[in-house]
Specification:
This protein is of the alpha/beta class. Helix 7 links the parallel strand 11 and strand 12. It starts with a strand and ends with a helix. It is built from twelve helices and 18 strands. It has three domains: about 120 residues, Sandwich (Jelly Rolls), CATH 2.60.120.10; about 120 residues, Response regulator (Rossmann fold); about 130 residues, Transcription Regulator spoIIAA (2-Layer Sandwich), CATH 3.30.750. The chain is globular. Helix 10 packs parallel to helix 11. It has a five-stranded parallel sheet, sandwiched between helices. Strands 14-15-16-17-18 form a five-stranded mixed sheet, covered by helices on one side. The longest helix is centred in the N-terminal third of the chain and has 23 residues.
Length: about 375
Amino acid sequence: MIRLEEYKEGEVVLPEGELGKGFCILESGVLEVIRGGRILSEIDMPGAIFGELSELLSLKRDAVIRAKTPSKVRHIEESIASIVDKNPKVALKLLRTLGRRLYRMNRVAIRQDEDSNIFEKADKEVVDETANSNKVRILIVDDKPNIIKQLTDIFARSEWVVESAHDEASAIRACEHHGFSAILISMALPDETAVDLRRKLKTNHNVLNTPVLAMIVKGDEPALKKALNSGFSDCITKPFDANKTEAVMYKVMDLDSSARYFKFVEDYLYFKVPEDLSNFVINDIKENMDNRIRNTINEGIVKLIIDVSELEEPSEEAIEVVGEFAEKIEDMKLPMRGAIVATGDDAEMWNNLDGCEEWGICSDLNNAKEHLAQEAVSEEEEE
């Protein structure tokens, strides 16, 4: 499949983070290659090939290609192996393209030309766009505004970016120039829209490898069977259970689910104990404790803040979770400094837990950070 696209100045031609198929040919205009907010190079020669490395190396794109001027680009959306098999001369052209690119970058590396504008800082808009491209992006396809709002609120807890489409046409348009980390489609859309849309999206290079999930009403076994038989990656049920919905999303996107509870912030590990401590949530936290502790050690972090301030009162479940986490750290003899953010008359109670005896009890997050900083200074003075 070959399609010719026109791009206005500043529009993204190929986004970062997608697994590409085929390659592109510049018809006219000038494009910029941007990685980490910096302009690495420009593509300005009509007939220039780009975007082929993703398929050749089976790696997601690590740079954004953006139109510097109004441009026309031809997208060749067929596997390179198939193209080369039909026309071996394409292989020679690809080799020459890669050779010229390697030669140019080697000359830059040898010169160490810091005055060159090759590594010119991209403008703030591009930096922001690149940062956003690294975020999890979810597309929700449903004609019910309440459903979209409910899911948006759930995904906001993980700081995911949400876009929505109300029908097949708007969903396809949304995927024409952007990739997504996951796509949710309501099985309640008219006729066979959900199944047809999933099939069509799997031919779009932007979302070719994106997991597509079905949304069904709880207990609707025919819809569940239909979705799974049609190739949907998984299903989430309405009404939505926030924790279970998140768990399914983390699983299909192959993300670390412990990020919902444990985050690296600045130079400390932040563990916010959720208000809703159902059996599902407790088991999920416990299953990820060891992995999170290992990651903390690997990052060289020795500060820990546990936030229980949103709990109305210290329940047995919360005490058990915090206590088990502290005991694991104590048993491993890790040199970690801890603080607990807690309010109310029972705040000092947390010092009674094994492993938490020496931890600071603080009224808010800023107070906890100051406490850990003072502890660090005191330890240095003692040494």
